[in-house]
Design brief:
Layout lengths: L13 E3 L5 E3 L2 H8 L12 H15 L3 H26 L9 E3 L4 H12 L3 E3 L6 H7 L3 E8 L5 H17 L8 E7 L4 E8 L2 H4 L8 H12 L7 E5 L3 E12 L4 E12 L4 E5 L3 E6 L3 H12 L1 E3 L2 E3 L2 E6 L2 E4 L6 H12 L7 E7 L4
Parallel strand pairs: 3-4
Antiparallel strand pairs: 1-2, 5-7, 6-7, 8-9, 9-10, 10-11, 12-17, 13-14, 15-16, 15-17
């Protein structure tokens, strides 16, 4: 045991070589001992050297070298797991749709092992070893505006939205890339607008286009189903909407239950939106108010705490307009009209909606 600095506890461990040099043991060393890092990964190293480094720790603990390495990874990845669980809870994510994607030089050491701990699919991003650096260079511009408003009108919500949009444009986002998510918390009388967009640098780093078949394959992988089950339900000029009917057993396997999964895939093959129990409505800008009213009425949930509007996303061109955080139908329709006001009435749009509590 040692204390690296005067401010640290004395529960750190290092190995000391015969020449007096000390080396710390890391999760990357542990992963190399266990042989779980792909040879092509940046974190891949000399497994024999890592094993020799772990032997003194294993002897001290009275366990095998592999068990010592596994324990190091379990402790390390449990911290990552805690953060992921908090994000899943905070954003009300469907656990069945979550996939862990690792970036950074050490991602191969932690992400696949964390995926196994959590029973979630996990993979490394392309060029994972430099993804952190690229992330800094191509970071998405984001800002949040909050206002306390009692029973906000559509006009007040739109004003908060405009403030958020203008804020990210001022700090470098290209206007055509800006998207704004609105949340209305009626219990706290809070309106929150989260705006984000990309810089010109990221705009210049476009991925190559993928054909329809490649996009269908991406949707099938995301839905964990065979490609033959995937149907192209609708599309915009830059987005495909794929659906698949999934059957599951309920009540001890006595009954079949079906749900329609939806995936929105852009034409580079990236899944941009995932929804379960989703309904897809192709329409036009001119009919958006009528279609939204019909769909919200159909899919709104009523409970002890009042009514919950469905999760609603409008696809137009390459944009996905998120209306899921609103409390009233009038707010959703007003915001949709504002988002689409500069488009012609016959412009094609697609509505993807899902009940909130299914």
């Amino acid at each position: 045991h040692l204390r690296p600095t005067a401010h640290d506890t004395d529960d750190y461990t290092a190995i000391e070589c015969t020449n007096g040099k000390r080396f710390s043991l890391t999760p990357t060393c542990a992963a190399n001992v266990l042989g779980i890092i792909p040879k092509t990964a940046f974190a891949f190293g000399n497994a024999e050297s890592a094993r020799k480094a772990f032997e003194p720790l294993a002897a001290k603990l009275g366990v095998s070298t592999e068990d010592a390495a596994r324990k190091v990874l379990e402790i390390s990845c449990s911290k990552v797991q805690k953060q992921i669980e908090e994000l899943i809870t905070e954003y009300n994510l469907d656990r069945g749709l979550v996939e862990l994607v690792g970036g950074g030089g050490g991602a191969a050491s932690l992400v696949p092992f964390t995926g196994k701990l959590m029973n979630l699919p996990a993979r490394l991003a392309r060029k994972a070893e430099v993804i952190s650096t690229i992330g800094v260079a191509l970071a998405m511009v984001r800002d949040v505006i909050e206002r306390n408003i009692v029973d906000p009108s559509p006009e007040q919500i739109l004003q908060v939205r405009r403030e958020a949009s203008e804020s990210v444009i001022k700090i470098g986002a290209l206007p055509e890339t800006v998207e704004v998510n609105i949340e209305v918390d009626t219990r706290r009388n809070l309106v929150r607008a989260t705006a984000f967009g990309t810089t010109e640098l990221k705009q210049g780093a476009r991925a190559a286009a993928t054909d329809l078949q490649g996009c269908r394959q991406a949707a099938a992988r995301s839905m964990k189903t065979d490609e033959s089950n995937v149907e192209l339900k609708s599309e915009t000029s830059a987005l495909y909407v794929f659906t698949a009917e999934i059957l599951t057993k309920t009540f001890f396997g006595l009954f079949d239950s079906s749900k329609q999964l939806a995936r929105v895939v852009d034409k580079t093959g990236v899944v941009r939106l995932q929804r379960s129990h989703a309904e897809v409505y192709p329409t036009t800008v001119g009919n958006i108010a009528r279609e939204l009213e019909f769909m919200i009425t159909k899919l709104t949930d009523f409970g002890d705490a009042g009514r919950d509007l469905p999760d609603i996303h409008i696809l137009v061109g390459a944009r996905i307009v998120n209306l899921s955080g609103l409390a009233e139908m009038e707010q959703a329709i007003a915001l949709a009209k504002t988002e689409l006001e500069n488009l012609s009435a016959d412009e094609s749009v697609v509505i993807v909606a899902a009940p909130k509590n299914v």
